[in-house]
Amino acid sequence: xxxxxxxxxxxCPYCQMVLGELNQLTVAVELRNIMExxxxxxxxxxxxxxxxxxxxxxxxxxSVTWMYESRDIIHYLQQQAS
Length: 82
Ligand SMILES: N[C@@H](CCC(=O)N[C@@H](CS)C(=O)NCC(=O)O)C(=O)O
Fold this sequence. Notes:
Helix content is 43%, strand content 24%. By secondary structure, the chain is α+β, with helices and mostly antiparallel strands.
């Protein structure tokens, strides 16, 4: 089983595209606003290697993947929903 966390901030247009898509899908994604919580920003930097948002953290039993790029994230989430 995989879990998902989306690192984002509200005024980012790329994040809004992903959030808009999320509203259409039934995939459970926990939201991590990096402007609201410095711990999320630090986690993103430490794990993903940069603070660019949106970034989808994908966790499964064996690995953690940090996916950047709104288009890739949207495409990936659409696949998870289908
Ligand atoms: N090509 C990227 C662009 C993402 C992007 O430019 N994000 C900006 C916020 S709107 C950002 O995180 N800038 C700060 C940084 O790169 O550290 C995408 O489509 O996701």
